[in-house]
């Protein structure tokens, strides 16, 4: 199976003495991957590389089966397939609806379709009816959920989440985990950083552990997946958008 991402001999120095080094990492479509590791181990840095927001100084990233050249039009095309929700999301000081609509408008979505996608996404994160709330007057947990709704409204092929449940109460965490666990069945691959040691298991996700900017070991498939190695998947998986 062609991996969605194939990273080979990656070296990325972020200018503060930290280097992310990934000899090889294959991430497959229609799955959930959980990036784990201590503070500063490189989870967010890896997410930025996977979001195609940073270019490694060395090595190759293949996305969707083809090596990236990092040429501007290619990047623009691929970035529309991938959405990153950062650890501290930035919201415009406008209404929640404005924040959700912004990226959709850039993609040419308008009118009833735009309204429908926004309210559906808010509903999914448990914030139905929040459209007219001012973004700056939201709690930390609500900001995080609005940022997730904004990403979901874009209907990306890959959703990259940087500690998406860090500021949330237990009940909201469980509700969002149900939502995230369901995303592969909608053709969305999820790659998320987490500090919760049990979360990958609850999400049936594969664990990718980082230590000091390096992969600690190959990705661990979930225990209930009949898989012999991260490269060879024998379990059926939902088709992603491009295969339908
Ligand atoms: N924007 C940045 N510019 C330069 N260096 C950065 C930047 N962001 C993070 N770093 C540094 O890069 C290293 C890796 O940070 P990164 O945020 O990727 O780790 P992390 O595993 O996500 O950590 P945490 O669990 O604390 O979120 C750290 O040493 C950090 O200080």
Q: What does this molecule look like?
A:
This protein is of the alpha/beta class and 244 residues long. It folds into two domains: 5-81 and 156-243, P-loop containing nucleotide triphosphate hydrolases (Rossmann fold, 3-Layer(aba) Sandwich); 88-155, no CATH class. The protein has seven helices and ten strands. The chain has helices at 43-50, 72-79, 96-106, 111-124, 140-153, 170-182, 199-202, and strands spanning 5-13, 19-27, 32-36, 58-63, 66-67, 82-85, 158-162, 189-193, 206-211, 214-215. A six-stranded mixed sheet has the order 6-7-8-3-9-10, with helices on both faces. The protein has a four-stranded antiparallel sheet with strand order 2-1-4-5, with helices on one face. Strand 1 and strand 2 (19-27) form a beta hairpin. Helix 3 packs across helix 4, helix 3 runs parallel beside helix 5 and helix 4 (111-124) packs across helix 5. The relative contact order is 0.19. The model is unreliable at 226-244 (pLDDT under 50). Adenosine-5'-triphosphate (ATP) is lined by residues 14-16, 18, 37, 39-45, 193.
Give the cofactors and ligands.
adenosine-5'-triphosphate
- If you compute it from the alpha carbons, what radius of gyration comes out, rounded to the nearest whole angstrom? 18 Å
CATH architecture of the largest domain: 3-Layer(aba) Sandwich
| Largest sheet descriptor | 6 strands, mixed
Low-confidence stretches: 226-244
The amount of helix comes to 25-40%
Mean pLDDT metric: 90
Instruction: Kindly report the spatial arrangement of strands forming the biggest sheet.
Output: 6-7-8-3-9-10
What is the CATH fold-level name of the largest domain?
Answer: Rossmann fold
How many DSSP H or I helices?
7
Choose one word for the global shape.
Answer: globular
Kindly report the name of the CATH homologous superfamily of the largest domain.
P-loop containing nucleotide triphosphate hydrolases
Number of domains: 2
What is the CATH class name of the largest domain?
A: Alpha Beta
In total, the number of strands is 10
Terminal Cα span = 16 Å
Please state the structural category: alpha/beta
N-to-C SSE series?
A: EEEHEEHEHHHEHEHEE
Fraction in beta strands: 15-25%
């Amino acid at each position: 199976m062609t991996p969605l991402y194939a990273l080979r001999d990656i070296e990325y120095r972020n200018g503060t003495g930290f280097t992310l080094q990934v000899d090889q990492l294959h991430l497959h479509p229609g799955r959930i991957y959980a990036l784990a590791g201590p503070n500063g181990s490189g989870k967010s840095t890896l997410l930025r590389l996977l979001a195609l927001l940073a270019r490694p100084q060395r090595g190759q990233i293949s996305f969707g089966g083809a090596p990236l050249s990092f040429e501007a039009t290619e990047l623009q095309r691929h970035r529309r397939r991938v959405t990153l929700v950062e650890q501290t999301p930035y919201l415009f000081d406008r209404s929640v609806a404005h924040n959700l609509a912004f990226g959709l408008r850039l993609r040419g979505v308008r009118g009833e379709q735009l309204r429908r996608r926004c309210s559906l996404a808010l509903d999914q994160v448990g914030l139905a009816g929040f459209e007219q709330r001012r973004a700056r007057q939201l709690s930390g947990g609500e900001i995080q959920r609005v940022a997730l709704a904004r990403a979901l409204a874009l209907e990306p092929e890959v959703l990259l989440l940087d500690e998406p449940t860090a500021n949330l109460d237990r009940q909201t965490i469980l509700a969002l985990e149900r939502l995230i666990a369901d995303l592969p069945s909608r053709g969305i691959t999820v790659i998320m950083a987490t500090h919760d040691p049990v979360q990958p298991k609850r999400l049936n996700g594969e664990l990718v552990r980082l230590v000091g900017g390096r992969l600690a070991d190959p990705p661990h498939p979930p225990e209930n997946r009949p898989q012999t190695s991260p490269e060879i998947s024998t379990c059926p998986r939902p088709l992603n958008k491009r295969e339908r």
